[in-house]
Design a protein that fits this description.
The protein is mostly helical. The chain has one domain. The chain is built from 7 helices and no strands.
Length: 155
């Protein structure tokens, strides 16, 4: 919840600071804030650039910019997790689909730079899941609700 709030707060601040600029610059500023929030979560300076995967931060950021696209991406996430029981697979597919959803729903203010910033943030989140993707391909990724082979301790 705090990671999502962090992303949401950054975008709200950008929206407040650029509300006078018009729709396109406003969306560009909000999308840049979302990208910065995701990058700051994935590569935090105080943790020697080793942070989280950025999914929750992206969710909070993107919800402010493209709420309909986020709802559809969340539904995709839930369907994939329910069907396959892989949280990482649901995360990767829903985040990868988000820029296309935002574009098709016209939730980027018509500014290609805003769409590019959201696409870059989404790509960063997908790339951060590289080890999960490798485990999915190898068939060794843990399923939701499955007992871990190492006694329940994280790897």
């Amino acid at each position: 919840m705090l990671d999502a709030a962090k992303g949401w707060g950054g975008v709200v601040l950008a929206a407040h600071l650029f509300r006078w600029a018009g729709e396109r610059p406003l969306y560009e500023a909000m999308a840049l804030a979302a990208l910065c929030a995701v990058a700051g979560h994935i590569f935090p300076v105080w943790l020697k650039f080793k942070g989280g995967k950025g999914v929750a931060t992206g969710l909070g950021s993107f919800a402010m910019i493209a709420p309909k696209a986020v709802l559809i991406a969340a539904a995709i996430f839930l369907l994939i997790v329910l069907a396959f029981r892989y949280v990482s697979l649901g995360s990767v597919i829903s985040v990868a689909s988000f820029p296309s959803l935002a574009m098709s729903l016209h939730e980027y203010g018509g500014d290609w730079r805003a769409l590019a910033f959201m696409g870059t943030a989404s790509l960063m989140i997908v790339l951060k899941h590289y080890s999960n993707i490798l485990r999915l391909m190898a068939g060794t990724e843990n399923r939701l609700g499955a007992k871990r082979a190492n006694g329940g301790r994280p790897k």
